[in-house]
Amino acid sequence: MTWIEAIVLGIVQGLTEFLPISSSAHLRITSELFFGRDAGASFTAVTQLGTEAAVLIYFAKDIWRLTKTWFVGLVDAETRQTVDYRIAWYVIIGTIPIGVLGFLFKDDIRGAARNLWLVSANLIIFALLLAAAEYWGRQKRAIGDMRLRDGVIMGFAQAMALIPGVSRSGGTITAGLAIGMNREAATRYSFLLAIPAVVAAGVFSLPDVFAPSGVGLAPSLAQMIVATAISFVLGYASIAWLLRWVAKHSVYVFVWYRILIGAAVLGLLSAGVISAT
């Protein structure tokens, strides 16, 4: 991997991780379009540690409160009746689907699922699902109104993002809107739900990123640190921006963006300008 590749891909990761447009798709498309090769799923997973560090800092107070409440609730009956205790459990339970499916289909996720025909099609298909959820969702429920069923639904929606082009935040926000949550609540819970899965994926991918056994480039330690640091700074900024945006605007701008990018990639693939694998 060259320094230009590491810096550019770190920027792309930081700008797109929290927006409902699929960071893995953008990393896959960018690496193919500008560098003619796939950076690899392991590189993506490790740079996500930078953006997840941004989540940990941005939501530090929420994370501490939920964690503390969960531990206290294990021994205190009154605490178990609180909203924070329930939300903490929903995050834990909602993480199970992506953990199990990620383990079972690890090889496919790192290989066949990165085909650009599939990636671009997913960008368009899940854009339409996001639009439908925005249009028909009641958007009246806050995080405190969540139930176990909601946590499970959003957990499976997050698991869909194992396939590039779906988008972790896009899938969970879509599911949240579909079950009646308002945009800000769905987005905030999406960030919290992503923390365990992304941190685990990044840590487990560390051995592979420097010596890829399959598809992927091998960055140096310095390149990996710089790319992750860039993704952290830009990721923190994008969290703040997205939360402000969804509080006052619809998600249709992301829908149209996904459709345009997906259609453009399909056109380039059809014309033979870029390779699907």
Molecular structure report:
The protein has 277 residues and is mainly α. The chain has one domain (3-270). Helices cover 74% and strands 0% of the residues. The protein has 12 helices and no strands. The protein has helices at 3-16, 23-35, 41-58, 60-73, 83-104, 106-110, 116-136, 148-160, 168-178, 183-209, 221-248, 252-270. Helix 7 (116-136) runs parallel beside helix 9. The protein is globular, with a radius of gyration of 18 Å.
How would you summarize what this structure contains?
The protein has helices at residues 3-16, 23-35, 41-58, 60-73, 83-104, 106-110, 116-136, 148-160, 168-178, 183-209, 221-248, 252-270.
Structural class: mainly alpha
- In N-to-C order, the SSE pattern is HHHHHHHHHHHH
The overall pLDDT average reads 89
Q: Strand-residue fraction?
A: under 5%
Kindly state the number of beta strands: 0
Unreliable stretches covering 5 or more consecutive residues: none
Domain count: 1
